Each structure stands twice: as structure tokens, then as C-alpha cells.
Amino acid sequence: MTVASVPWARHDAGHTRDFDDQVAWLAAVTSKTAVTNLMRVAWRTIGSIVARVWADTGGATDRLEGLARIGIDEISYRRGQQYLTVVVDHDSGRLVWAAPGNSAATLRSFFDALGEARSAAIRHVSADGADWIAVVVAERTPHAVVCADAFHIVQWATAALDQVRIEAWRDARAGARSEPKRGRGAPRKDAPPRPASTLARGIQRSRYALWKNPEDLTDRQHAKLAWIAKTDPRLHRAYLLKEGLRIIFQLPYDDAVEALDLWLGWARRCRIPAFIKLARSIKKSRQLILNAIAHRLSNALVESVNAKIRLITRIAFGFKNVDALIALAMLSLGGHRPVLPGRN
User: CATH number, domain at 101?
Assistant: First the structure.
């Protein structure tokens, strides 16, 4: 038997190039059900086609050439702590690299592929503050300016605020339990609620009012915040600390330096354990936060790419083969989406 290369089919493929390209294009723009029904092939076959097309397309271009500003993040693609590490080019907005895992070893494989010379050309790196990212970036690109992602820093403060809210709710609930019942037996349905019960219920329902930015609050949520300020000053102080940290990222650099130092002093003296602990983390990341403000760089673009990868996963009802997911994500988000045959 003689095996020969033909121009109209890829190696080891059971379909023509045009068929492969059309299936790959459909997989990138529509749902799993639509592709399988229209092209009359199994989803497993589509995964093989996408991987084959990406190997052909990705091998023809150098995705890592010319990188200067990159964003690094992780994304969960499957239950059971299954993660991808993704790298995005801030200048082109493209996904340039992805691999399974979220560890220092995974990220080192990216810099191994990049090489020493091109690693030296990296000027800025944005990341979410994970230690494993910071360690590898310091090893491979020590000269690069590392910028902490504003969204994740504010998310730390939001988590601390929610911890304070839960503690306040538990304290109010304990107070409600300790109140004596009125009269004999169970309280009447039309009896007014006890003060501690009202406080616990109000705190429980204040989550979104505390989380949202002030400019996005409804009238009802504004009223909820005013009620918290009167009934639970400690929780309101935690809310103001969260908002104070968020506003720092909107200030000019010189003002932000002063405001961040003032915020750290405030948080250290606030007598709220969750925010005292947060202040230690913020102090540790102080320079990274100021870098992000000075260079106006965040992981917003990376988060947008992650959201699109989640959408790809949802449309496909999940991926058993992570390589098929990476291939489809690279085709869709890496700037190499195949064109429909006959549309060149």
C-alpha cells in the first residue's frame, strides 16, 4: 500500500480540507447540536477536526512573536478543580497560549516556549496576585513591570465585607434567639417582629446593596445602606473601607499613592479582623497596585477572554478532552478563525 500526500486533505484525515474548515468554522460560531445535525458527524469527530485544523493553522504562525504586554490568569473549565492557564496579548487582544493546570510548572512551560530572548522583551505583566504567577514571572522576566488586577484586589475587599456581614447576621440571629417570647406558646402571626429578628433579616437582605457600586444602587438599596449606617456602624465601616479601596484605582497616580497609604492606616486601625488581615495583603501588593494605576493596566481583557472560553464550554456542553477545548479556544479567540471554503 502506498500512502501519498494530497493537497485537498490533511494528513491522517477522513475528510477533505474544505469539510474540515467548514466544521471548524461552525464549531467556533455555533452550538454543538447545530454542528452535529448540520454536518452529520459525531461531536467526538468534530473535536478531532478542530484539533487537526488548529495544528495546521497554529503551526503556520508564531503566536508568541512580538509579545510586550501580557495578561496571565486561570480559568476552571470542568468540575473537580480542572483549570486552564491562559495568556493574552494586551496589544492585540488575542489569546496566545493556553495549557491545562494552574501551577508554577504550567506557567514555566509558557516561558520555555517563549524563550529567553522573547521573555526579555516582555515589558508589562498583569495578573490576579496569585503567588505561583508572581514567582514564575520574577524568575523569567524580572525586569517586567507587574501590575495587580484591580478587579481582584477589590474582590478581596468585597469578600472581607461579606465576612463582616455574615458575622453581623449571626450576632443578630443569636440576639433574636435569646429574646423572651411574648405570652404563652408560639407568637401570633400578626404580632410585630422582635427588634433582633428585624435586624437579622435586614442584614441578611443587604448583600447586594453592600456589593454594588454606589452609582449603580437603586433607591431601595440606598435606603438599605442608610438603615445599615444607623443600626450597625461596624458593618457600615466595612462597607466604606471596601468603597475607599475601589476608588483608589480611579485616582491619578500621585493622589492614589497618598490615598492608598491613608487607606492602609485606616484599615489597620479599624478593629475589624477581616480588614486588618486584608490590609496586610494590600501592603504586600502595594507596589503592584501602584504599577496598575500608573500604567492603567488590568486583567479586564483576560477576564473577557475567560468569559468567552466559558461560553465555548457551555455551548459544547463541556469537553472531555481538554486539547479539543484549547484548540477551539485558540481558533475562536487567537485570531486564527478559519474562513468558510469559497469565501477567501
Answer: 3.30.420.10
Residues 127 and 156 in one domain: no
Domain match, 126 and 167 both: no
- Please return the burial class of 111, using the count of CB atoms within 10 Å of its CB with bins 0-12, 13-18 and 19+: buried
The DSSP string of 17-75 is HHHHHHHHHHHHHS-HHHHHHHHT--HHHHHHHHHHHHHHHHHTS-TTTT--EEEEEEE
Q: Is residue 324 part of a domain?
A: no
Count how many domains the chain has.
2
The per-residue pLDDT for range 111-170, each reduced to its tens digit, is 999 999 999 999 999 998 888 999 999 999 999 999 999 999 999 999 999 999 999 999
DSSP 179: S
Any domain includes 20: no
Higher pLDDT, 1 or 208: 208
Q: Report the amino acid identity of residue 49.
A: I
The pTM of this model reads: 0.79
- DSSP 3-state percent helix, strand, coil across the chain (nearest 5): 60, 10, 30
Question: In the block, which residue shows the cell 494552574?
Answer: 102
Q: Which helix (H) or strand (E) holds 308?
A: helix 300-315
Whole-angstrom Cα Rg for the chain: 26
Q: Are residues 259 and 278 in the same domain?
A: yes
- Which residue is listed with cell 452529520? 40
Cα(58)–Cα(161) distance, integer angstroms: 45
Q: In what order do the strands lie in the sheet with 82-89?
A: 95-100, 82-89, 69-78, 124-127, 145-148
- φ/ψ (deg, to 5) at 240: -65, -35
206-220: average pLDDT: 90
Do 282 and 167 fall into the same domain?
yes
Q: For cell 404580632, name the residue.
A: 191
Q: How far apart are CA 88 and CA 72, in angstroms?
A: 7
Q: Clarify whether residues 164 and 278 are in a common domain.
A: yes
pLDDT digits (tens, 9 = 90+) for 257-315: 999 999 999 999 999 999 999 999 999 999 999 999 999 999 999 999 999 998 888 87
